[in-house]
Amino acid sequence: PASGARRESCKQSTTSPLSMSPSNLSYFKPPFCSTASAPQDTAMIHYEKFWLYRHCSSVQQRHRQAQKAGQLFSGLLAMNVVFLGSAFVSSMIFNHVAITLADVWILLSILKVLCLCWIIYYLLGTSRQPHAVLYRDSHAGPIWIRGSVLLFATFSVLLNTFHIGYSAVLIQCKSRVEIVFPSIEILFICTQAFFLWHHCKDCIQVQHNLTRCGLMLTIATNLLLWLLAVTNDTIHMEIESQLREVEQRFAGNETVSCTCPNTTICKVFQKGYILLYPFNTEFCLVCCSVLYVMWKNVGRRISHHHAPHIKHKFKLQGVVFGPLLGAVAVIIGICVFMMYQIQATSSAPDHQVFVMFYSYYIVLLPVMSVGAVVGTIIHALEKKELDTVKNPTRSLDVILLMGAALGQIGMSYFSIVALVATDPRDQLNSLILSYSVLLILQTITQNVFIIDGLHRQPLVEEVKEEQIHEAYDQRRLSVLELGQEIRKASLSYIHSYSHLSWKRRALREISFFLVLCNIILWVIPTFGAHPVFENGLEKSFYGYSTWFAIVNFGLPLGVFYRMHSVGGLLEVYVTA
């Protein structure tokens, strides 16, 4: 009877794996099947186990091969689209007679229409199929990323609105394409922003290849829009810098046939277009990063064996000195930026304005580097385990931080070589040399601090305790008067600050301070302060065209690095 029971249990165990998922079949081991009383049953069970293992392994292998093939095909599609568009943009720059800006706009309009068709199909068809979205990546699309998408999308829509208004005022000397292209751009921006806000966390399980190709086509289109925006901005900078010399020698001679009339509405459209122009480039890069995470999540099945992801909320608690020091850095930075813009754009740039500008950086960058080093040391002292779970969002954040940092580091090394080879003992040259060295150190230390913080697991117990205190405080506050609410809010803030460990307080202070510093370091170059090109030192050493190409590569990446660092530092802040 005992052997019969064992044989019966073996038969049941051999049939039970058929109901299991393919990912778990390779780990199945039938129990009670190693007894000597049933050698025939044991042999049969080992044979069936071997067949199941081999069958499931082949299924998993074919699935991985199909996934790799789909990723390869969609990647090749995006690569060819990017190369074609880059050839158009480069041809327009070097031979604007054969390939005009209108030709580039027509190509990009075709790509945007194709992307719009796929996005609408995804919204109305793919995502609504049964079992289409079984899993959602909790790490993808945090609130500040989606918020930045909406913010930059709003400014990009305003930018294209000003562009349409400016072209409509000068319709007698403007092409019809200059009205059609921004109109399609507005529709593309709004549809893409809506799509990313609602579906950036999707791990789609149907129509893998079509979804991958659609995402890669949208990524390629955004990259080409970014490339066109960057080249147009640099061309505008080049024309503006050359016109300074022309205006000094030939003052009063107007050589431009299509100029803005002396009307208020035309001036508003023109100034608004120039002011909002940098937001379009940032919108394209942010969309590319979110779309790439969606592309990595196509067909992904998230395991539920690990601890559930905790949705951290941004709360201004546990910080006092970080916001104060950061606010001081932001206020001083705005004053320096305004003074630089007034003096550098009114006439020939003065020597003292560059001294003031680089002195501000020389004071701020070492403080940021020290803060990042201290934060990295605190991370090493903390008893937090490393988060080793597969996370495409975190992997992309690390890649973008390291890749975007190459822009600032590259320009800094070129400046170091040029200044050391000329006259490093000059006052302005020594300031620029110190600025370049400090910028490299600050970028490296900040990257180490952010990447180390992103790979640390949050303290679940302390997070739960904070949620309990927060719920309790909200319950009490709802029954108090207005004056008592203010008093209780202050006491609650002091209570939460005093009950945090010194390590967590220090990490929050440092993270918040670095967030504000990176914001001001993003604002200054985004809105037109480019002393690396306007001081004339590196330009005279490398030549106009060579140094302009270096700035063209490094400056947009440096702007994107500061913006992306803000997102990484916010992640470190809320998980500290």
TrEMBL record:
Residues 1-10 have a biased composition (Basic and acidic residues). GO terms for cellular component: plasma membrane. The chain crosses the membrane at residues 72-98, 104-124, 144-167, 179-197, 209-229, 274-295, 316-340, 360-378, 398-420, 432-451, 510-529, 541-561. Residues 1-22 are annotated as: Disordered. It comes from the Eukaryota. The keyword Cell inner membrane does not apply. Signal peptide: none annotated. The gene is OTOP3. It is a multi-pass membrane protein. Residues 11-22 have a biased composition (Polar residues). This is Otopetrin 3. The keyword Cell membrane applies. It comes from Strigops habroptila. Its main location: membrane. It is found in: Cell membrane. Keywords: Cell membrane, Hydrogen ion transport, Ion channel, Ion transport, Membrane, Transmembrane, Transmembrane helix, Transport. GO terms for molecular function: proton channel activity. Belongs to the otopetrin family.
